[in-house]
Amino acid sequence: MKPARAVPVLMYHHVSPHPGLVTVSPHTFEQQMARLARGGYTALTAGRFLSFLKGERTVPDKSVLITFDDGFLDNYVHAFPVLQRLGLHAVIFAVTGWIGEGDPRPHAGEAGGAGLPDCPNHKECAQAIAGGRADDVMLRWSEIARMEASGAVEIHSHTHSHLRWDQLYPDRDVRLAKVEEDLRRSRDALRARLGRADIHLCWPWGYFEPEYQLIASELGFTAQYTVAKGLNRPGDDPRHIHRIVVKDRAGSWLPSRLRIYRQPWLGGLYLKLRGQ
Ligand SMILES: [Zn+2]
């Protein structure tokens, strides 16, 4: 087996029939995942990816980490059944303060279209959260439990409240105290619900300061995910994991991106040409 030199990390938000910001349609998502499965890709667990990044173990050449941000209900309704059917694995970074209680709702793999919850576009989801109706558009703990039990999905932290502390708290000491309090709440919620100490954290809005990284590390978040494009190679900083935004494009678009970000020389050249 040829080992991977670099592992691309894909970033999704919504998989929904309602077009909008950061949204891939269920049809495109299915095609993208089928391409990965047919192309012989290994969709890593977060733990295996981190071991690769730390240089502790090798992974197959065609490896990828699939991630979703925020924890929208549509991830369960439209993405989860596809991942399960194709034997792929993904990570959802959930905002723990937005996760609801109650029974699991139907998903596309079991309801076949009838009785599926409506999964509105990004703007409407943001309005629902702001209006105190997060449960209409975000995951429930019961849905998370079901996805985790299947082995197709694992949940990690996207903080507890998804705030831009820098805009809310100009005073540095206050700001850092707020960051620490929020990360602690998220970590404790995941520990209480899932029974494990989480070590994977995704920064909301792609925003963080060097002090945030230190605070998160001290709370046990060894792996920190950004929205910066780039390569992930053994020995790279696990507190600055690069990701690729996945567009609503089928065909060869995704495989060609993966090729670029799997090969350090090609990825380096590509990023240089794009001025990054
Ligand atoms: Zn987010």
Question: Descriptors for this entry?
Answer:
276 residues, alpha/beta, TIM Barrel, six-stranded parallel sheet, two-stranded parallel sheet, globular, binds zinc ion
Folded structure, characterized:
Strands 1, 4, 5, 6, 7 and 10 form a six-stranded parallel sheet that branches. Strands 2-3 form a two-stranded parallel ribbon. Strands 8-9 form a two-stranded parallel ribbon. The longest helix is centred in the middle third of the chain and has 23 residues, at 172-194. By secondary structure, the chain is of the alpha/beta class. Helix 2 links the parallel strand 4 and strand 5 (63-70). The model has no long low-confidence stretch (mean pLDDT 96). It has helices at residues 26-38, 46-53, 73-86, 108-111, 122-130, 134-137, 141-150, 165-168, 172-194, 210-218, 253-262, 264-273; strands spanning 9-12, 14-15, 23-24, 42-43, 63-70, 90-94, 153-157, 200-202, 223-225, 244-245. The protein has one domain (9-273): TIM Barrel (Alpha-Beta Barrel), CATH 3.20.20.370. The radius of gyration is 18 Å and the shape is globular. The chain is built from twelve helices and ten strands. Bound molecules: zinc ion. Zinc ion is lined by residues 69-70, 158, 162, 204.
